[in-house]
Amino acid sequence: MSQDRKRRVERDPPRLLGIIDSHCHLDYPPASEALDEVLAQAHAAGIAALVHVGCDPERFDPALALARPASEDRPAIHLVLGVHPHAAKELDDTVMARLEREYARPEVVAIGETGLDYYYDYSPRD
User: Fold this and answer.
1) CB of 99 within 8 A of CB of 87?
2) What is the pTM of this model?
3) The dihedral of CA 16, 38, 112, 106: what is its sign?
4) Which of 40, 63, 74, 83 holds its CA 20 to 30 A away from the CA of 118?
């Protein structure tokens, strides 16, 4: 791993009060089919923030488009970006560089949906 990758991005964490949904996929049906309604219902239920997970490189841009601060009638949407174990074969230096670059954005609060999963073996173990 390069020295650049070992470098930690220093920044203040978001300060949130209220209920937080710490893992959701707003770009998958049924949420994606009625996103405004889903966000309004979340707000009405007292949810202050949602943490949307973009779990493969093709979903990074749509995830970034979802990010927004809280408003009077909608919760904030923060982001986690990563490469799901099923798509591990897509992980390369370009994707790692993009993850590092995107993690510097304030709306990206974590790298996640990442790891090893040998149950299905959709990606080679190496």
Assistant:
1) no
2) 0.78
3) negative
4) 63
